[in-house]
């Protein structure tokens, strides 16, 4: 480019401070954005055993429940679905009014997001199915797969 | 036989790259052009060997040679040739091989092009590129060997991952991403060479920016293509989920973008030089970090690549690359002082500085969000996830600020601007932005995100439109050219600047489309009997019948589809389907997408009941999604325009009557300069 490079009067060094303050303010705002909402944004993964072990504390708290859809437990239409999620030792009945993805069927690994009600039924707002052939059944103490929205 | 040839090519390739690194090193130390030539030839040979290995893999896939474990796991006798071919990059070992092919290809291309133009930098860039290629060959020689054999040889293989053979787009999106990823080693190599040889002047910056822009173009295309693939194939109605694999591609893109901007400041104003070097390093290291995160199993992802032993290798490479390059940078800091004082708070370089802070902010947020669950589990044993809403919520304000700066930067002069300039330059764009937001409001848009995006897009596009119009008019007057001719010549003689404007325009379009589709989409889930309909927006979807049949192209695949009739602004037949692949325990969704400029109608089949003929559908109306792909295409076009080689300047003495170039006239017209 042939843009003219005009001669410029030297900038006094104190100008730096204005810029530095601006940069510091931007970094501060970004840090505040990132950390202020993180407590509410975190979703805890639990297996049925872990969730029930928390007793009354577990009720009403947003969690992701990971386990297997028990064979023979699925009933109802896709938009009013009831099934049982199990980790091999503990079972929780899940009720969902939002249809799961197409890959949902008995025996698959699933992560359901929602809350345990005082009746002991897990009301799911989202049912996510792991659509991978390498997916391993979560055993107690193992990480259920991270999944994005509806992935 | 052929797999053995492939394996031999990998082993010889490792030797060739190690030899090349040594030859470049000694050639540079002893100033011996013969050794440098030898090193260069060894790198050409390495590219040839990577080509042989890749060809051996492709032949093994096409001939269904199940004695090779990779083929047995990722291919079947019924796999169509196209999907056999693209299986080269469909799984871990093959994609490492493909990456090696591209990395050696970039290295050979760059070393060839700069063999005479940058004789001092080239050998050191060669050392870095050769060592990088050697790492990939070594990964293939030990933990990620693509040619491992299996015994006994089966008659049939497992077949490709069902999800990956369900759409031909799989043939396009990974190569674009890998071209971008592997190409980012080139600016890193030149950065290292500049630091080693102390040639940290403005000359290396031009070269490095060009060679950042080229992979950046591919990476951008790959990211947009990946989003499109996710949208068209996965059937969840969206295109971006802040999944670790998506984040891994985004991280180096963010720092490379920051570099493209900061290098302009470093070149024109002589400030931010250490910072610019650090960005080159960060970009390359983040390509390794992304691979490590997604391929080692430390972060789980929807893409769920097979875990393998390559994790520690990549961790080692990250540590070596980061420690080595940072040590070199720190060693050279005394020579990288600013050659000029920094600009004023209201100046183009200040806008670029804030642009960089914001890009690094997004980088930090994305990296933090991706690894935080892992750290938290290691620290406290609690398993948590940070969902997409957190990423969106934190990044949205930063992206809005970036959009704003996209308009501010080009309109402000270098050095500093007076109040009058600011007022003159920003009055019309601000008005245009406000008008666009008001128009959106009057059209019934009430959500904040689309209104803000509209205002910003109006502002940005008007700033750049003004620049182009003013520049063309000045040039047209000075040279007696008609305005379109003047505009084209102005742009082709300033490719970086006007290509950049085109990229910004594309980003503005994408921003509006993302904001609108993200906040104004609607969806409904229904179960329909044959003959029943559902209404969403202006559309009526009627379920007609369920058909189950084998695919003509691959008879192993059983397709169950709902045949639907669509009425509304778009009409016709829709057939969302579920496909059962023999090697997949669950069916693969194949959504039906009807795309128009205004909105997409998107239907996923969730379940069918063969007895009653009932289907459960998820129907989405996604506004403006098509404009994300159009904006993405404009971005790629603009970047390609900017990176396009300029005509070699022939040093002819300028005639006395040479008119003043248009941009110089503009600059001269700015009173405060």
How far apart, in Å, are the first and last alpha carbons of chain B? 70 Å
Oligomeric state of this protein: heterodimer
Which parts of chain A are unreliable, with pLDDT below 50 for 5 consecutive residues or more? Answer: 1-14, 132-151
The N- and C-terminal alpha carbons of chain A lie at a distance of 47 Å
Mind describing the biggest β-sheet of chain A?
A: 5 strands, mixed, barrel
User: Helicity level of chain B, as a percent range?
Assistant: 55-70%
Reported by name, the CATH topology of the domain at 43-129 in chain A is OB fold (Dihydrolipoamide Acetyltransferase, E2P)
Helix content of chain A: 10-25%
Instruction: Decide which structural class fits the backbone of chain A.
Output: alpha/beta
Specify the CATH homologous superfamily of the domain at 43-129 in chain A.
Nucleic acid-binding proteins
Q: Can you tell me the CATH architecture of the domain at 43-129 in chain A?
A: Beta Barrel
Number of domains of chain B: 4
H/E order of the elements of chain A? Answer: HHEHEEEEE
Beta-strand percentage range of chain A: 25-35%
| Overall average residue pLDDT of chain B | 89
Tally of contiguous helical segments of chain A: 3
Helix segment tally of chain B: 20
Q: Secondary-structure blueprint of this entry?
A:
The complex is a heterodimer of chains A (151) and B (673).
Chain A: H1 15-36, H2 38-41, E1 42-46, H3 48-53, E2 63-69, E3 81-86, E4 91-96, E5 109-116, E6 121-129
Chain B: H1 2-30, H2 33-62, H3 69-74, H4 81-86, H5 92-113, H6 122-141, H7 173-183, H8 185-197, H9 202-233, H10 244-269, H11 273-295, H12 310-332, H13 348-380, E1 384-386, H14 388-411, H15 419-442, H16 448-479, H17 483-492, H18 495-520, E2 522-528, E3 533-536, E4 539-550, E5 558-567, E6 572-574, E7 577-580, E8 588-590, E9 592-594, E10 599-609, E11 614-623, H19 625-643, H20 662-669
Antiparallel strand pairs in B: 2-11, 3-4, 4-5, 5-6, 5-7, 7-8, 9-10, 10-11
How does this model look, in words?
- The complex is a heterodimer of chains A (151) and B (673).
- The longest helix of chain A is centred in the N-terminal third of the chain and has 22 residues, at 15-36.
- In chain A, 21% of the residues lie in helices and 27% in strands.
- Chain A has a domain at 43-129: Beta Barrel (OB fold (Dihydrolipoamide Acetyltransferase, E2P)), CATH 2.40.50.140.
- Chain A is elongated, with a radius of gyration of 25 Å.
- Chain A has helices spanning 15-36, 38-41, 48-53; strands spanning 42-46, 63-69, 81-86, 91-96, 109-116, 121-129.
- Chain A has a five-stranded mixed barrel.
- With 151 residues, chain A is an alpha/beta fold.
- Chain B is an alpha+beta fold.
- Chain B has four domains: 1-166, no CATH class; 172-181 and 218-398; 399-519, no CATH class; 521-626, no CATH class.
- Helix content of chain B is 62%, strand content 10%.
- The model of chain B is unreliable at 652-673 (pLDDT under 50).
- At the A-B interface, α1 and β1 of A face α13, β1, α14, β2 and β10 of B.
- β1 of chain A pairs antiparallel with β1 of chain B.
């Amino acid at each position: 480019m042939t843009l003219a490079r005009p001669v410029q009067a030297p900038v006094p060094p104190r100008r730096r401070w204005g810029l530095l303050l601006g940069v510091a303010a931007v970094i501060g705002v970004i840090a505040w954005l990132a950390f202020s909402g993180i407590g509410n944004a975190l979703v805890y993964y639990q297996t049925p055993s872990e969730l029930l072990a928390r007793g009354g504390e577990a009720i009403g708290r947003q969690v992701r429940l990971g386990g297997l859809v028990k064979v023979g437990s699925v009933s109802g239409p896709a938009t009013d679905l009831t099934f049982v999620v199990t980790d091999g030792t503990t079972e929780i009945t899940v009720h969902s009014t939002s249809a799961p993805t197409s890959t949902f069927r008995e025996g698959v690994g699933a992560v359901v997001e929602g809350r345990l009600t005082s009746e002991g039924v897990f009301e799911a707002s989202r049912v996510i199915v792991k659509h991978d052939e390498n997916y391993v059944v979560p055993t107690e103490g193992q990480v259920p797969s991270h999944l994005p929205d509806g992935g | 036989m052929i797999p053995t040839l492939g394996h031999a090519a990998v082993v010889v390739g490792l030797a060739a790259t190690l030899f090349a690194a040594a030859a470049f090193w000694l050639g540079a130390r002893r100033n011996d052009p013969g050794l440098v030539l030898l090193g260069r030839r060894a790198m050409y040979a390495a590219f040839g060997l990577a080509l042989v290995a890749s060809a051996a893999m492709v032949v093994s896939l096409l001939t269904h040679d199940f004695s090779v474990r990779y083929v047995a796991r990722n291919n079947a006798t019924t796999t169509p040739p196209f999907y056999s071919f693209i299986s080269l990059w469909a799984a871990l070992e093959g994609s490492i091989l493909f990456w090696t092919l591209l990395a050696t290809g970039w290295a050979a291309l760059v070393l060839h092009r700069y063999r005479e133009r940058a004789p001092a930098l080239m050998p050191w860039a060669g050392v870095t590129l050769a060592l990088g290629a050697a790492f990939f060959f070594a990964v293939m020689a030990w933990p990620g060997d693509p040619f491992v054999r299996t015994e006994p040889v089966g008659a049939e293989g497992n077949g490709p991952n069902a999800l990956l053979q369900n759409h031909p787009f799989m043939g396009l999106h990974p190569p674009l991403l890998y071209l971008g990823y592997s190409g980012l080693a080139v600016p890193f190599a030149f950065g290292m060479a500049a630091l080693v040889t102390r040639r940290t002047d403005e000359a290396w910056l031009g070269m490095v920016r060009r060679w950042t822009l080229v992979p950046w173009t591919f990476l951008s295309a790959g990211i947009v293509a990946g989003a499109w693939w996710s949208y068209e194939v996965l059937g969840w109605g969206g295109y971006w989920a802040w999944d670790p694999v998506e984040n891994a591609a985004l991280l180096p893109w963010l720092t490379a973008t920051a570099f493209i901007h900061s290098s302009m400041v470093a070149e024109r104003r002589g400030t931010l030089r250490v910072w610019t070097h650090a960005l080159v390093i960060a970009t390359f290291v983040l390509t390794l970090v992304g691979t490590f995160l997604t391929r080692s199993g430390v972060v789980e992802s929807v893409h769920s690549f097979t875990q393998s032993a390559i994790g520690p290798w990549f961790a080692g490479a990250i540590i070596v690359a980061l420690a080595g390059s940072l040590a070199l940078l720190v060693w050279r800091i005394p020579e990288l002082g600013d050659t000029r004082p920094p600009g004023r708070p209201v100046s183009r370089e200040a806008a670029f500085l804030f642009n960089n802070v914001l890009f690094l902010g997004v980088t930090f947020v994305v990296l933090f969000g991706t690894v935080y669950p892992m750290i938290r589990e290691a620290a406290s044993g609690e398993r948590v996830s940070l969902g997409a809403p957190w990423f969106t919520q934190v990044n949205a304000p930063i992206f809005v600020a970036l959009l704003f700066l996209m308009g501010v930067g080009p309109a402000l002069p270098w050095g500093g601007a007076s109040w009058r300039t600011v007022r003159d330059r920003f009055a019309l764009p601000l008005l245009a932005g406000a008008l666009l937001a008001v128009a959106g409001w009057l059209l019934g848009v009430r959500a904040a995100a689309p209104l803000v995006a509209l205002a910003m897009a109006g502002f940005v596009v008007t700033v750049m439109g003004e620049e182009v119009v003013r520049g063309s008019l000045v040039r047209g007057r000075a040279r007696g050219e008609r305005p379109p001719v003047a505009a084209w010549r102005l742009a082709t003689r300033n490719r970086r600047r006007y290509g950049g404007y085109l990229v910004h325009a594309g980003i503005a379009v994408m921003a509006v489309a993302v904001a609108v589709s993200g906040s104004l989409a609607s969806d409904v889930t229904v179960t329909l009997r044959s003959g029943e309909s559902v209404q969403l927006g202006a559309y009526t979807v009627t379920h007609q019948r369920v058909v189950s049949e084998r695919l003509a192209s691959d008879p192993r695949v059983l397709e169950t589809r709902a045949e639907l009739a669509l009425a509304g602004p778009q009409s016709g037949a829709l057939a969302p389907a579920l496909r059962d692949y023999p090697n997949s325990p669950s069916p693969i969704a194949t959504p039906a997408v009807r795309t128009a400029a205004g909105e997409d109608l998107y239907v996923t089949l969730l379940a069918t009941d063969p007895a009653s003929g009932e289907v459960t559908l998820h129907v989405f109306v996604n506004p403006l999604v098509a404009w994300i792909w159009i904006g993405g295409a404009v971005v790629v076009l603009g970047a390609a325009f900017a990176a396009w080689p300029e005509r070699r300047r022939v040093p002819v003495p300028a005639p006395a009557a040479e008119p003043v170039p248009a941009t110089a006239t503009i600059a001269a017209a700015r009173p405060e300069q």
